Amino acid sequence: MVEMNLNRRQFLKLSGAAAATLAIVELGFDEKNVYAKTKEFKIAKTKVTPTICCYCGVGCGILVHTKNNTVVYTEGDPDNPINEGKLCSKGTTIRQLYTSKKRLTKPLYRAPGSKKWEEKDWEWMLDTIAKRVKETRDASFIEKEEGITVNKTEKIASLGGAALDNEETYLLAKLMRGLGVVYLEHQARI
Ligand code: SF4
């Protein structure tokens, strides 16, 4: 009998190798089965939430896999008619939006003429935006033009992004029309 003295690291390595060998034997060395099984392990017991890629106006469908309150994997949604499971290089790396150390988690504000960004809380930011929109709209509102009622402002413009879904875009358009904004643009054109 051969006696073996293993430390913890060696033991884990050996167990991993044994498990991998058993898995290969069980799968019968079929390369396709091995790939399929690996994917299954990676996303086993995750919660899947469908979403839309926020990067561009194509609007590809993405499945987000979460486990223990964290995003563990993202992939193209095969049921989405736009991308049928495929993603471009940006969409493929979308998990980094959540995991990146560079991710912004607080609003940043740069005062007019300043070169510095300051951290602000949401309350200050939303109040300030609302106040400035109101001031600008009131100061630039045009009721009539050549005798015709126009009720508009030309000093505010609205730009929508691909991260906005249908309902958000509808509400944004309603709000802007209500304010009299006539310059409305949106990135997504689908
Ligand atoms: S996956 Fe690529 S092409 Fe599709 S919406 Fe995202 S950025 Fe656009």
Features:
Phosphorylase Kinase, domain 1, alpha+beta, binds iron/sulfur cluster, 190 residues, 3-stranded mixed beta sheet, 6 helices, 3-stranded antiparallel beta sheet
In words, what does this structure look like?
The protein has 190 residues and is of the alpha+beta class. The chain folds into 3 domains: 58 residues, Phosphorylase Kinase, domain 1 (2-Layer Sandwich); 33 residues, no CATH class; 50 residues, no CATH class. It contains 6 helices and 8 strands, in the order H-H-E-E-E-H-H-E-E-H-E-E-H-E. The strands form 3 sheets. A 3-stranded antiparallel beta sheet has the order 1-2-3, with no helix packed on it. The longest helix has 20 residues. It is elongated, with a radius of gyration of 27 Å. The protein starts with 7 loop residues before the first helix and ends with a strand. The model has no long low-confidence stretch (mean pLDDT 85). The site of iron/sulfur cluster has 11 residues, from helix 3.
